[in-house]
Design brief:
Blueprint (H helix, E strand, L loop, with lengths): L1 H16 L7 E3 L2 E4 L1 H10 L7 E5 L3 H6 L6 E2 L17 E5 L4 H12 L5 E4 L2 H7 L7
Parallel strand pairs: 2-6, 3-4, 3-5, 5-6
Antiparallel strand pairs: 1-2
């Protein structure tokens, strides 16, 4: 029984360490960025160096309901099968609705060899709250 609780505690600790981080900085190989900083990068658009790409990992229906202008929709459920659409030569600003799916997507991208994944904290909910431009 003691071994069970020790194992449970270790698993719980590991899960807590891999949960969504609200601060900026590098976590598990990807970077977290604030919604304000993401907006500043988005405003640079095609003039950003290196080039950037906003990746919306929400469902198609969520994307069609409103997304960051210019973002590419690759739902997290299809990400593994669509890596050919995710360039390694661009900074990837990954977002979802609240930050959970984008955190998982950013972790996954790092696991499969990407070094350019940037998780957008607050994601679409924060973008909407800040009243930044939305495309439908």
């Amino acid at each position: 029984m003691k071994k069970f609780f020790l194992s449970f505690a270790l698993v719980l600790t590991a899960l807590m360490m891999t949960s969504c981080d609200s601060g900026e900085g590098s976590v598990s190989g990807y970077v977290n960025i604030s919604i304000e900083d993401a907006y500043e990068q988005w405003k640079q658009g095609g003039s950003a160096e290196p080039p950037i790409m906003f990746v919306d990992v929400r469902t198609r229906m969520e994307y069609e309901d409103g997304h960051i202008p210019g973002a590419v929709n690759i739902p997290i459920q299809t990400l593994a099968n669509r890596l050919d659409e995710v360039p390694k030569d661009k900074r990837l600003y990954v977002y979802c609705e609240s930050g959970v799916r984008s955190t998982n997507a950013s972790k996954y991208l790092v696991e499969v060899g990407y070094t350019n994944a940037i998780n957008v904290n607050a994601s679409m909910a924060g973008w909407r709250d800040a009243q930044y431009p939305i495309e439908k």
